[in-house]
Write a structure and sequence with these properties.
Elements lengths: L2 H4 L3 E7 L6 E4 L2 E6 L6 E2 L4 H5 L2 H6 L11 E6 L2 E6 L5 E3 L2 E2 L3 E5 L5 E6 L3 E7 L9 E2 L5 E3 L7
Parallel strand pairs: 3-4
Antiparallel strand pairs: 1-2, 1-11, 2-13, 3-5, 5-6, 6-9, 7-8, 7-10, 10-11, 12-13
Length: 151
C-alpha cells in the first residue's frame, strides 16, 4: 500500500434528517455508524438529535429506522467496503446494499448513503472538502456540526 493510500480519509456529510449539516471523518480501518452511543459515529451525538426534546426523539419513526449499529465502513488502502448490519436497510445512491458493497476510493468519489428511511449522508473524498474544520466528537472520531461552524 502506498503512503498516499494509507492517508486517505473520507468525509461523511449529513444532507437529510437530524444529521443535516454534520460532518464526520472516515479514517483508515473500520468505522461503525448507527444510533448507539457506542458506535464510532453515533447519530445520537448529532446536534440535530440533541436539540430535540426527548418525546420528539422517541416518537420520530424515521430516526428510529436507524439501527443501533447500522453500517460498517471499512477503508483499506484505496478501497472502501460498506457492510449493512442493520434491520432497516442501508442504501448507496438509492440502491440497497445487500451484505457488502465495495468501491475504489478516488478523488472524485461522491455517493449518497442513506440509513433507514431518512438519515442521509454524502460520502466523499476528503480532498473535496478542503479547509473545512472538524473538531473532536469523541476520542476516535472527528466531527463538525452546525453549531461548530458558527464560531
Amino acid at each position: 500500500m502506498s503512503e498516499e493510500a494509507s492517508s486517505v480519509t473520507l468525509i461523511l456529510r449529513g444532507i437529510n434528517g437530524w444529521v443535516h449539516g454534520e460532518s464526520f471523518d472516515i479514517p483508515q480501518g473500520v468505522t461503525v455508524v448507527g444510533r448507539s452511543r457506542t458506535c464510532d459515529i453515533s447519530l445520537r451525538r448529532c446536534h440535530g438529535y440533541r436539540r430535540q426534546n426527548p418525546s420528539t426523539r422517541d416518537q420520530d419513526h424515521d430516526f428510529n429506522t436507524v439501527s443501533r449499529q447500522h453500517v460498517k465502513c471499512t477503508v483499506d488502502g484505496d478501497q472502501l467496503t460498506l457492510e449493512d448490519v442493520s434491520t432497516n436497510g442501508t442504501y448507496c445512491d438509492d440502491s440497497p446494499i445487500e451484505g457488502t458493497f465495495s468501491l475504489p476510493i478516488t478523488p472524485d468519489l461522491k455517493v449518497i448513503l442513506r440509513l433507514g428511511t431518512r438519515e442521509s449522508f454524502m460520502l466523499c473524498h476528503a480532498s473535496q472538502v478542503q479547509g473545512e474544520s472538524r473538531g473532536p466528537l469523541s476520542d476516535s472520531t472527528n466531527h463538525t456540526g452546525p453549531a461548530d461552524s458558527a464560531t
